[in-house]
Amino acid sequence: MTEPTQVIEQTQVTEPTESGEPMTVPGQASTRPVALVTGVGRRAGIGAAIAERLAATGWDVGFTYWRPYDGRMPWGTDSETAAQVSKKVEELGGRSHSIQANLEDLATPTAIFDGVWAVLGPVQALVLAHCESVDSGLLTTTVDSFDRHFAVNARASWLLIREFAQRFASPHGSGRILALTSDATVENLPYGASKGALDRITLAAAKELSQLGITANVINPGPTDTGWMSPELADSVKRATPLGRLGQPVDCANLVAFLCSPEGGWINGQLLHSDGGF
């Protein structure tokens, strides 16, 4: 495994000036609650859809991304995503703050919360949409890959949840933790196993953090069209889905927005399948 490096990269929080140009307003007060969304590396991804949907439903949004991971993936790095998502959040009335952060680094979760807190304020909802996902089977997975999957998908998620709970200062019953999972198993051992660990961590949080007024749920969004499927695989998934289509990032984003709302406050400790019946 390469030596992990932590990167904290701050973007603007803006409001229009008299000239119509944006200006930086660090830590500007807001009546909107603050959500932190991890894994917003691609505009076509679920994380970006969640960030934008939360902004549309009244949230300020801090979010993270990690370009070296995208650079290892077939879709490659998109250097414009962070700025585009920030702009969209602000167009929807929210404040934004983005952080490029390596979740393999043990110090990163604390640094993320420090950065978001300093600019936007205390976090009321934590959405874990980041992942390490490299296909390999039981016999072909390397120890380095196995460890990296668990470091990012399980350990970092636990540390983020712990940091969130230790700092939680919002009204009792308003705290939210949402984690995105997968039921992948065959030829996807380290990803599926580490996501299984994430499920257990999140469901433990639902019990242990209830006294703080925080709910925690896991969402399995099913096969979602974020550009990773081949045409053949996409057709196969459509045929296997009762509704005859692929999931879209906004499908998961709509569920996250509901669970983060007061109306979603009675749902706790659940693994929710939002997959069209796949």
From TrEMBL:
It comes from Rhizocola hellebori. Residues 1-30 are annotated as: Disordered. Keywords: Oxidoreductase. PROSITE patterns: ADH_SHORT. Residues 1-17 have a biased composition (Polar residues). The keyword Lipid metabolism does not apply. It comes from the Bacteria. Belongs to the short-chain dehydrogenases/reductases (SDR) family. GO terms for molecular function: oxidoreductase activity, acting on CH-OH group of donors. InterPro entries: NAD(P)-bd_dom_sf, Sc_DH/Rdtase_CS, SDR_fam. This is Short-chain dehydrogenase.
